[in-house]
Amino acid sequence: MDGDTYDYIIIGSGSAGSIVASRLTEFFPDKKILLIEAGRNDNKLTVNIPAGYGYLFKNSNVNWKYYTEEIKGLNNRRDYWPKGKILGGSSSINAMVYIRGQQNDYDNWKIKNWTWKDLFPYFLKIENHYLGKTPNHNDNGKIKISNIDKEKHKLTDEFINTCVNLGIRRNNDFNGSYQEGVGLYQLNTNNGKRSSTSKEYLNKIKNKKNFYLLTSSHVSKIIFEGNTATGVEYIKEDKKYLVNCNHEIILSAGSIASPQILQLSGVGDMEYLKNFNIKEVKHLKYVGNNLQDHPNVALHYKTNIKSLNDDLRPLTKKIYFFLKWLLFKSGPLKLSINQAGAFVKSSDSINDPDLQIYFLPLTATNLSKSANASVTPDPFSGITIAPSILRPKSRGYVKIQSLDPFDQPLINPNYYDDYDDLLLMLKAYKISKQIADTQPLNSFIDEKIGPHKNINSENEIINFIKLYSKTTYHPVGTCKMGISESDSVVDCNLKVHGIKNLRIADGSIMPNLISGNTNSACMMIGEKCSDIIRNNYENI
């Protein structure tokens, strides 16, 4: 491989990168397409099993296991950020909730060719949806979208019924004509198995003559001649290699690694990078800035009827349900632990929901007690209600801390740096508590558990939020798309400002967070980027 030349090189095989690689092999059958992935292959049973998510959560074989800096808004706590280090990236280790976000999320980006009208066809292109071909869905895409109605937990029904009793309307399709309301999540699963971008895109092209794949290959930097990207340096088994590129390099390493690689390559805020004696390729102040994420805080309750804790914790039950999944692809292992949610407004004065409330018929209160803990259910029956704010105002950063590409960068989302975010989470907490206190769900609750058990005043709630908020695993924005290099990193064609032959395609390009889980949007970005590259090539 060392010294070989390819026409297109994609860095990162995640939700977007896998799609870009797949589409380019299709669009350009006479071109050599190389995909470089730091992780390993995804042929693990725990990847295929949807509920295996809990075992992947802190598994260093498939997970970058990032940790943030001390976050002032969390009372100087560090937060754990899992990210996929495997073929398929985070689409291979996430909780598989399929949410597009709201139309206004994209319209408010105010980026040419990136309105909802522009992007909706790409969401359709992704989908092989259980509802079939409808005005809102497609039935011939690669990612399988399933319904969990038949095997959802009874407590999930009670959560939904309770929300309806509180005046929150029932929504049978969060990806339909509107998002507001309460309902079951749709999952990217297929016949009881995870439907990742690796499974649905990469597996279909692995034998193509124009496709080349490198795994366990850690990209250390992009090589430039002047302002033109010409190659990629990577490390495999402690040896450095260089591959050359004829046409374009597409950086799809995610919202943490993409800005890290740019900075190590000499593209970023040179006032900061000069501390590391990095040679300047292009001064772009916004590389690594604009980091956004959805914070959430979990409220745990013991229940007087069995929950998923009782199905997924005892060894005998684990064996029974594993065999049920293995033989019939049925039972609780075929589902995500995230089964339902509600999108609600914090105020009647706003147009779109600004809060998302997750419901899990499971508790895992020991998760924060060990750096290496998996999502292990508690030894009692319980549920979790976890509110999250959808459009936080706070902004953070990703910065390298050394020249070593294996050193994780400095990560700080600055949760609650904007006080409005804290006040919004306070409202979200109150709504979540109201749900728990309302029938019929309340009749199944024995008691609060955990640190929110004895809090009542607003000051106590705010202190609880600061002490126990954590990520919802949706970091975006660190290579922001925009018009000017003064406040963004890439243009509307995903080209890095002032750089030739380099694009970025992953969640890092989002100017602002979308209202919900981000995996679907990242896949959409992969499809959109692929078409941009094809159209650019055809118009040369």
How much of the residues is beta strand, in percent? 15-25%
Within CATH, the superfamily of the largest domain carries the name: FAD/NAD(P)-binding domain
The coarse overall form would be globular
Global mean pLDDT: 95
Give the terminus-to-terminus CA distance: 29 Å
Q: Please identify the oligomeric state.
A: single chain
Topology at a glance:
Elements: E1 5-11, H1 17-27, E2 33-36, H2 45-48, H3 53-56, E3 66-67, E4 80-81, H4 103-107, H5 116-126, E5 127-129, E6 143-145, H6 154-165, E7 181-184, E8 189-190, E9 193-194, H7 197-200, E10 211-214, E11 218-225, E12 228-236, E13 239-251, H8 254-264, E14 267-268, H9 270-273, E15 282-283, E16 289-291, E17 295-296, E18 299-303, H10 308-312, H11 315-328, E19 340-344, E20 355-360, E21 382-389, E22 396-399, E23 410-412, H12 419-436, E24 445-449, H13 458-468, E25 470-471, E26 502-504, H14 519-538
Helix pairs in contact: 1-14, 5-14, 12-13
Give an account of the 3D structure.
The structure is a single chain. The protein is α/β, with parallel strands linked by helices. It has two domains: 5-43 and 198-292 and 476-538, FAD/NAD(P)-binding domain; 152-184 and 295-389 and 416-468, Cholesterol Oxidase, domain 2 (2-Layer Sandwich), CATH 3.30.410. 25% of the residues lie in helices and 21% in strands. It is built from 14 helices and 26 strands. The chain has helices at residues 17-27, 45-48, 53-56, 103-107, 116-126, 154-165, 197-200, 254-264, 270-273, 308-312, 315-328, 419-436, 458-468, 519-538, and strands at 5-11, 33-36, 66-67, 80-81, 127-129, 143-145, 181-184, 189-190, 193-194, 211-214, 218-225, 228-236, 239-251, 267-268, 282-283, 289-291, 295-296, 299-303, 340-344, 355-360, 382-389, 396-399, 410-412, 445-449, 470-471, 502-504. Strands 1, 2, 10, 11, 12, 13 and 26 form a seven-stranded mixed β-sheet that branches. β11 and β12 (228-236) form a beta hairpin. α1 runs parallel beside α14, α5 packs across α14 and α12 (419-436) crosses α13. The two termini are 29 Å apart. The model has no long low-confidence stretch (mean pLDDT 95).
